[in-house]
Design a protein that fits this description.
The complex is a heterodimer of chains A (283) and B (344). Chain A has one domain (1-213). Chain A is built from eleven helices and two strands. Chain A has helices spanning 2-30, 37-54, 57-80, 88-110, 136-158, 160-170, 172-177, 182-204, 214-229, 234-254, 262-273; strands at residues 126-129, 132-135. Chain A has a two-stranded antiparallel sheet with strand order 1-2. In chain A, strand 1 (126-129) and strand 2 form a beta hairpin. The longest helix of chain A is centred in the N-terminal third of the chain and has 29 residues, at 2-30. Chain A is globular, with a radius of gyration of 19 Å. The termini of chain A are far apart. Chain B has 344 residues and is an all-alpha fold. Helix content of chain B is 74%, strand content 2%. Chain B is built from 16 helices and four strands. In chain B, helix 1 (3-23) packs antiparallel against helix 8 and helix 3 crosses helix 11. Classes of the chains: A mainly alpha (283), B mainly alpha (344). At the A-B interface, helix 4, helix 7, helix 9 and helix 11 of A face helix 5, helix 12 and helix 14 of B. Chain A: This is Amino acid/amide ABC transporter membrane protein 1, HAAT family. Chain A: It is a multi-pass membrane protein. Chain A: The chain crosses the membrane at residues 6-25, 32-51, 57-76, 88-110, 136-156, 187-210, 222-247, 254-273. Chain A: Keywords: Amino-acid transport, Cell membrane, Membrane, Transmembrane, Transmembrane helix, Transport.
Chain lengths: 283, 344
């Protein structure tokens, strides 16, 4: 019983990692808290539903992030770049407007009823884990989360573009003076962040129901993660995502009456202790 | 604005509202206007926080919906008379928001918005799940007594009277705020908004005024929630949902938050537009989303700012010039901006 709950916590934590790394990347380069991130995840899930039913799940897994990346690049080019000199709050409200438009679009195209995506055949079996049978697909979700966390960390730390991204998120002016095309860099990173939101949506589709409320649920959890982990910190977000995933899963089973309050109680406690989040250095 | 002007404007607005009540005979139009007025009070609360503190709340539906729940639960338990329940709801929410404010206003700028959203959603989920107390997703009826403050309930809820009451509350709130912000409190909060560090250096304790402002803004919002509870006699988790906070914030931005009356204007425009759109209103989210983006990009001061420019351009060219001169002065770096960085 405990094993399966811990396991489900890790699955949700892995999903949150994919979501939050997108949020953190976009925040890092553009200083935008993207309120539309949850809607992008929802859009990814619904696009995944359509593509998976037309061809198969694996095509969706590749195609959706690609489509979303293109969308992200356009969003940066015709949105964030034009607004970069304005008050940060302005841009946040633009993303809020975008959220409304995307939600309406999804409801218009796919309707308001719950939809579901079938688990892909290749992963539709159970694995014995410490004496408990767990679905293989969920192990795949954990692998995706771990892969994203590891891949991003290595990419940022060791690649040349990763170096530019880190430099630009600290000081874009100086980085640009060194000959880095920061506009292209930002467009690429916003594209990557948006692609990750789409990826999270596709990955979530076979084990969470597709519904109009799916975006706000995950958006709010992602915000809690990002605030707890510290706004600027990717590694803080990874840890916070796992912690929140476990709390959500264990809380729902052992403290059902308090489960809605637990993440927020944790958040308030962390903020009282460290207003910048537990890994956040800047405010 | 001088104090005498505040009083004369408030008086004129009250008379205008009264005239409207007698001029409009249709009950449907009056109840639409009542709703718009109640949301104008709600938006006034949200706008106050943005104008005076530079903070956008995505969670004010909490205070809007909780007012109805507190009154409903107190009346259901027959714990106190209805008049006391109203006072307790407004004071309780204001007090709670003050305590919450002490924690969350310390979080800089945008993270504050994320926090208010998260806390608000916690209340939504809790109300949704505690079926015993709140009726869960079905909501609860509020059992108002036959008389309230000496007036028969049946008279209060007549469309004309309900509109008059809401309008009067709106004007009193707005006038009261204009007076309250005229003095020391307004000056302090503006100083803290513009440069918290500098305000601290000159000896202002910045946490208390910001928390007080947060509480005041929640208090005004709870007044709007109380009026809704009176108007509909019903409260459901829908009223706590974060999309309601989002709508209120949208009214604030579209109306323009630099002027005190901007948010109220935004609320009234929102309801009238929704009514005029009629069948297209199914797509209100997309329509208002696009409207929100357009206003932010092309007219950051909203409708109030646009009207103000139109007005001032004709009447007081000197005031506009003075404003322009002020605007050219170097702006202090806002402490709320995360990791202040230079434009590139």
């Amino acid at each position: 019983m405990l094993t399966i709950n811990l396991f489900n916590g890790l699955v949700y934590g892995a999903l949150l990692i994919v979501m939050c790394s997108g949020l953190a990347l976009i925040y890092g380069l553009r200083r935008v808290v993207n309120f539309a991130h949850g809607s992008l995840y929802m859009l990814g899930a619904y696009l995944g539903f359509t593509i998976a039913s037309q061809s198969n799940f694996w095509v969706a897994l590749v195609a959706v992030p690609a489509i979303m990346a293109l969308f992200g690049v356009l969003l940066d080019r015709y949105g964030f770049r034009l607004l970069q000199d304005r008050d940060p709050l302005t841009v946040v409200l633009v993303t809020f407007g975008l959220l409304l438009v995307i939600e309406d679009f999804v409801q218009t195209v796919w309707g308001k009823s719950n939809l579901s995506v079938a688990t892909p055949e290749a992963l539709n079996f159970s694995v014995n884990l410490f004496g408990t049978a767990v679905p293989a697909y969920r192990i795949g979700v954990i692998a995706v989360g771990a892969g994203v966390a590891l891949g991003l960390s290595l990419w940022l730390k060791y690649s040349r573009i990763g170096l530019f991204v880190r430099a630009s998120s600290t000081d874009p002016t100086t980085t640009a003076m060194q000959g880095v095309n920061t506009d292209a860099l930002s467009a690429g990173v916003v594209g990557l962040g948006t692609a990750l939101a789409g990826l999270a949506g596709v990955v979530a589709a076979p084990f969470l129901a597709l519904s109009p409320s799916m975006s706000s649920d995950v958006l709010i959890d992602s915000f809690v993660v990002v605030v707890i982990g510290g706004l600027g910190s990717l590694s803080g977000a990874f840890v916070a995502a796992l912690v929140l995933g476990l709390i959500q899963s264990l809380g729902a089973v052992y403290l059902p009456n308090l489960s809605a309050v637990l993440p927020f109680a944790l958040m308030v406690a962390i903020l009282l202790w460290k207003p910048a989040g537990f890994a956040g250095s800047r405010t | 604005m001088s104090i005498s002007r505040i009083f004369s404007f408030s008086g004129a607005a009250l008379v205008a509202g009264l005239a409207l009540t007698f001029g409009v005979s249709s009950g449907t139009v009056l109840s639409l206007l009542t709703q718009a007025t109640i949301f104008a009070i709600f938006a006034l609360g949200v706008g106050l926080l943005l104008r005076q503190n530079g903070m956008a709340s995505f969670g004010h539906a909490t205070y809007f919906g909780s007012a109805g729940y507190i009154i409903g639960i107190l009346l259901q338990l027959k714990a106190v008379p209805a008049e006391a329940a109203i006072v307790l709801a407004v004071l309780g929410i204001t007090g709670f928001a003050f305590l919450l404010g002490l924690v969350i206003v310390r979080v800089p700028g945008i993270a504050f918005g994320m926090l208010t959203l998260a806390v608000g959603q916690m209340f939504f989920l809790t109300a949704n799940r505690s079926r015993g107390l709140t009726g869960g997703a079905d909501g609860m009826n509020i059992e108002w007594p036959a008389t309230l403050f000496g007036f028969p309930m049946s008279a209060i809820v007549q469309p004309g009277h309900m509109f008059m009451l809401s309008w009067a509350v709106l004007i009193v709130c707005m006038g009261g705020l204009a007076l309250g912000l005229h003095g020391r409190f307004g000056a302090i909060t503006e100083a803290v908004r513009d440069n918290e560090e500098r305000a601290r250096f000159i000896g202002i304790r910045t946490l208390l005024p910001r928390a007080a402002l947060f509480a005041l803004s929640a208090g005004i919002t709870s007044v709007a929630g109380t009026l809704t509870a009176l108007n509909t006699g019903f409260v459901s988790p829908e009223s706590l949902h974060w999309s309601v906070s989002g709508v209120a914030l949208m009214m604030v931005i579209v109306g323009g938050y630099k002027a005190l009356w901007g948010p109220a204007l935004g609320a009234i425009v929102y309801f009238l537009a929704k009514d005029v759109l009629g069948d297209y209103a199914n797509h209100w989210m997309a329509i208002f989303g696009i409207a929100l983006i357009t206003v932010i990009v092309f007219s950051p001061t909203g409708l109030a700012g646009a009207l103000g420019r139109l007005f001032k351009g004709k009447r007081q060219p000197r005031a506009a010039a003075a404003q322009a001169a002020q605007a050219t002065q170097a702006k202090p770096v806002k402490p709320s901006a995360p990791a202040a960085r230079t434009a590139h």
